[in-house]
From TrEMBL:
Enzyme class: transferase
Name of this chain's protein: peptide chain release factor N(5)-glutamine methyltransferase
Catalytic activity as recorded in UniProt: L-glutaminyl-[peptide chain release factor] + S-adenosyl-L-methionine = N(5)-methyl-L-glutaminyl-[peptide chain release factor] + S-adenosyl-L-homocysteine + H(+)
Lineage: Bacteria, Bacillati, Bacillota, Clostridia, Eubacteriales
Organism for this UniProt entry: Acutalibacter muris
Residues covered by the Methyltransferase small domain: 97-196
Length: 284
């Protein structure tokens, strides 16, 4: 069977399995396991890959047809200018999260010090370091499995001043562990209401529930961040969070009641509400 025939077989199998983007996924798997991207499939697809590559490709396609996330199968995924290691136990970095990183980066200056709460793979913290010169970020993560990916990704970019720390965002910072007078706090917290988890796509349901479950109303982590972590910010320091696309009003109200000012909602590339940023008021 030629590489092109394998690609077409994979596309048909993924289509039948209900995968949203069967052509894209089949092409990415071809690139990873057969060593041929879409343009190379057109030019060299009449050649038959060796048996080892063929078996690895077909196994990867079977996993994808069972709705294992494509990112987990590939083992890494791009985010902004970065390539991040991912797998079972850590939330997949999504393009939408760039809206938070870019909006918060616009509020802080060179050498800014801050936290990335619920850090997961480190996408937010490392993303900030990639566009804010000299930024210093502590990435806070509770789950040990996610922490393994976080450590791996931080090690991948030694030029960034980024380090990992264990911490439970819902419990708040431990005395002496986290610095005060921070310039910013960022977070892509769990924000899906508990009752909505069962309705998520099969792929998303294979991601860690710890990184998805935002409590009964989806707002549990926002309240904890405002109550327990925001006091670490200096007056005028920036707070930025990712939100679900229907949560802008509720989250901005929480920010306002907590004394934050200059509250702004930012949209993702699809035009949906995706992030909220604000400045700590002088009376907070």
């Amino acid at each position: 069977m030629t590489a092109r025939e394998l690609y077409l077989r994979a596309k048909a199998q993924l289509t039948k399995a209900g995968v949203d983007s069967p052509g894209f996924d089949a092409a990415r798997l071809s690139e990873r396991f057969l060593g041929l991207d879409r343009s190379e499939l057109a030019l060299q697809g009449d050649k038959a890959p060796d048996e080892k590559k063929r078996q690895e490709f077909l196994e990867a396609v079977s996993q994808r047809a069972e709705r294992r996330p494509l990112q987990y199968i590939l083992g890494e995924w791009p985010f902004m200018s970065l390539t991040l290691s991912v797998g079972e136990g850590v939330l997949v970095p999504r393009e939408d999260t760039a809206a938070l990183v870019e909006a918060l980066a616009a509020r802080i200056g060179k050498g800014a010090r801050g936290l990335d709460l619920c850090a997961g793979s480190g996408a937010v913290g490392l993303g900030i370091c990639s566009i804010v010169p000299g930024a210093q970020v502590i990435c806070v993560e509770l789950d040990e499995k996610a922490g393994e990916f976080l450590d791996r990704n931080i090690a991948r970019y030694p030029r960034f001043e980024c380090r990992a720390a264990a911490g439970d965002v819902l419990r708040g910072p431990e005395q002496g562990v986290f610095p005060k007078e921070l310039d910013f706090i960022a977070s892509n917290p769990p924000y899906i209401a508990t009752g909505e988890l069962s309705a998520l796509q099969p792929e998303v349901q294979k991601e860690p529930s710890l990184a998805l479950d935002g409590g009964g109303d989806g707002l549990t982590f926002y309240r904890a961040i405002l109550e327990k972590w925001a006091p670490l910010l200096r007056p005028g320091g920036a707070l930025g969070v990712e939100i679900g696309d229907t949560q802008a009003r509720e989250v901005t109200e929480l920010f306002a009641r907590s004394g934050f000012v200059d509250i702004t909602v930012h949209k993702d590339l699809a035009g949906l509400d995706r992030a909220v940023t604000a400045a700590k008021g002088s009376t907070v």
